[in-house]
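ARCHIVE CARD
SHELF: 3
SLOT: left
DATA:
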Amino acid sequence: MKKLISIKRDKLIKVSSYVKKFTLPTKVYFPIDKSVKLNINAKKIKKGQKLYDLHNASYYSSVSGELSGLIWKKDETNNPTLYLSIINDFKEEKGKLINHNANYYLTTFCSFLLPTLEILKNQKILYFNAIKDDPYDVSVVAYFKENAESLLETLDFLRNYLHSKEVHIFLKENATECIEALSKFLGMYPFISLVFVPDLYPIGDDSVLEEYLKIPNLKTLKIVDLMYLQAAIINNEPLEETYVTISGDLVDEPCIVKVKIGTLAQELINEIKPCQNLSKVWVNGFFKGHLLDLDEVVITAQISSLIFSKEETKKENPCISCGKCLECCPKNCNPIKGERQNCISCGLCTYICPSHINFKERNTYE
């Protein structure tokens, strides 16, 4: 395989595992389609109530309140998306919990993950990919610190549910805080072990990890999968909150925020005030993420970092045919020729380009 690279971190961009909470948004937003039929008979919404099904997934309200209407925003990949908004009444009213077993809540709240679990079924080893490749995204640290024991309990449940003999958790060898959090409880789970990999990029991608560890046809559960599964299996509820890293060279007080899914990023930033006059944000990092207007961004479970940088964009210059993008691509793509068949959207071609060509934002290539 091609040599993986060590990312040189910008010393002006600091990160912190200090956790703040913002769980009282005035409104929450959920992606919807005009063809969707709401599973709601009344205007009043309860926390955890099912709203609708869309693209093989079910959406549940993270607050109690009332339906507000529809609005267009951008999603985390910069695509225009229609959202259903709900006004928060701040009462946190929940529906009555029926006494079902964990299997029921797994299939109810994580129906979109059932095809993935079916693929993983009967594998000798269940793999959990807990690697965070982005050097400025530390949200997983807060998740592991606050949920280490229940996370391991969830994995042990899945080991039995999927008829696996062992569970291997992939982590970078320098993920010290995550390792320490898990190590406190690992002794209670003899069939779960940690597997360490070097801090190289983009080793967190399954296809790269498969080649590096020489594990044929590697299939893994990801961090966001475990968040949904843990909420369902342990808490018997849909996932309502997530963790987001706030950082960047414009941020005075970097932190991780535990926030309601559906919160408008602008309201979150106004509340925690990490710095002043923020309008643009890198969603999910410089490498794989996109630069968006802050007021367009809605926090979903797929968003794990908001990076505010002084140098928002660099002026693109004509290609000088240096070949660096081809040399660095871990999947042997040629970005200049538009070869993206095996592209994993790691962003290395954009990162390495001396002409500052933003390949990941291009639909066509020269």
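SLOT: right
DATA:
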Amino acid sequence: MSLVESAAQFASHPFVSPCAFEPVTARDAVRGTVELDLSLRYAGQRKLRVAYEAVGPTDAPAVLVAGGISANRHVIASDAFPQAGWWQAQAGTFGTASLRVIAIDWLGADGTLDAPIDSADQADAIAGVLDALGVRTLAAFIGCSYGAMVGLQFAARHGERLQQLVAISGAHRAHPYASAWRALQRKVVALGQLQCAEDQGLSLARQLAILSYRTPQEFAERFASAAVIDGPRARCASEDYLDACGSRFVERFDATAYTRLSESIDLHAVDASRIGVPTTVVAVEEDQLVPIEDAYALVERVKADTRVRVLRSKYGHDAFLKEADAIAAILRSALADCCEVAA
């Protein structure tokens, strides 16, 4: 059974949690690494180290949170690790004494795994980390973008360990149009490497990616000024912004990691009929990378209760990062059952 609701309408309803939300403390946040012997789909048997972070009491319901390929294990700040996390906008949702939030650094994120990586490999790595932490069952897997793809794989491969899945801006396949975007980005990185200009290639690839994450509407609003002459050439209003995005990305990401994780998105394919856990699919009408038609196709294939939340956002694929209130309302609804378990 599927349920389609407007996220804007859904967000207008007040959320009442059955248990109190309290800030986490230093003793509630830990980091570590787990050594795993994994059979990778395309790269064979490998001994790998997977880094994780867990925030919240060990006896609280466990929630796995996963983001895009540039996300990492640090989701929200805590007293122990006070720097802002990649999804700090949802600190009010996740930073509670009623949940244990677990996240990993993606396989390949450090650039040392120069081999094809499948989303199923990531799902198996998460299962291995959960084993090491003594977590038998997840109350929820919340995945965004690539993380949603991995969440779908986890639900298909390890469904007995999962109570519910929330898949935001991710589907059962990589759309051919989105794959074309990423293929060009990888070629830009490769060209930079051939020209001994790896950083420039990676920066340009990131800038192209930004265009696919956002929408023409946003750029029309933010960068409406006409191009100007800058020395011997014209320069458009958005170039400073794109240059800054590229520079920041180069400072924290590796070209090999980018290439392999980008490939991993395009290699992704999951048989959604193998998913038998309650699933919430969050789609954005303006998403250029995950068309809403794919979200509906996914819902039709899942063999469990499903519902679709539809957002409209000028931020397109990046809505999960930018539309904090609407996403929080959806997550709080999904996590209400977790609080009931903890009560």
